[in-house]
Write a structure and sequence with these properties.
The chain is an alpha+beta fold. It has a single domain, classed as SecB-like (Bacterial Protein-export protein SecB, Roll), CATH 3.10.420.10. The chain has three helices and four strands, in the order αββββαα. A four-stranded antiparallel β-sheet has the order 1-4-3-2. A hairpin with a 2-residue loop joins strand 3 and strand 4. It is globular and about 60 Å long. One of its GO terms (molecular function) is unfolded protein binding. Its main location: cytoplasm. This is Protein-export protein SecB. Keywords: Chaperone, Cytoplasm, Protein transport, Translocation, Transport.
């Protein structure tokens, strides 16, 4: 075998299970909000998290919180946490972090998007179709922010060390 085929065999990724971990739909100003002119102002918050379950088995969670206001009143708050259990054999360091922070959320997003759409529809509000999210770009942005924060902390420690002498 070549080195390349050995490397390919040493890495494996599989989805063991996808599931809704938590769901909430709140309509604090119903029914009177239905009688007002509909001027939606939509805010979407996206959060991801992951945890090691057992050796090379991870749970990754994607939480979407959609808050929609109309005329400065909350029409609804829809929150869905879509999760999955993933096997990631042979991944480490940056590869593992990219899988947990971008690749797995890309898999989870369509399920969470469908759950939000269904809940909003059942609340008899205007249909919501969330646009695709570029989790790779979000992850790279996060990594860049962490690098900048670490660089700033290192610079401050170096400056503090100079003052102590």
């Amino acid at each position: 075998m070549t080195e390349q085929s050995n490397a390919q065999q040493s890495h494996s990724f599989s989805i063991q299970r996808l599931y809704i971990k938590d769901v909430s739909f709140e309509t604090p100003n119903v029914p009177h909000i239905f009688q007002k002119e509909w001027k939606p102002d939509v805010n979407l918050e996206i959060n991801t998290s992951s945890q090691l379950i057992t050796d090379e088995i991870y749970e990754v969670s994607l939480r979407l919180t959609l808050t929609t206001k109309s005329n400065d009143e909350i029409a609804y708050i829809c929150e869905v946490t879509q999760a999955g259990i993933f096997s990631m054999v042979g991944f480490s360091g940056n590869q593992l972090q990219h899988c947990l922070g971008a690749f797995c959320p890309n898999i989870l997003f369509p399920y969470a998007r469908e759950a939000i759409s269904s809940l909003v529809n059942k609340g008899t509000f205007q249909t919501v179709n969330l646009e695709p999210v570029n989790f790779d770009a979000l992850f790279m942005n996060y990594v860049q922010q962490q690098n900048n924060a670490n660089h700033t902390a290192d610079s401050q420690q170096a400056n503090n060390g100079e003052h102590l002498q």
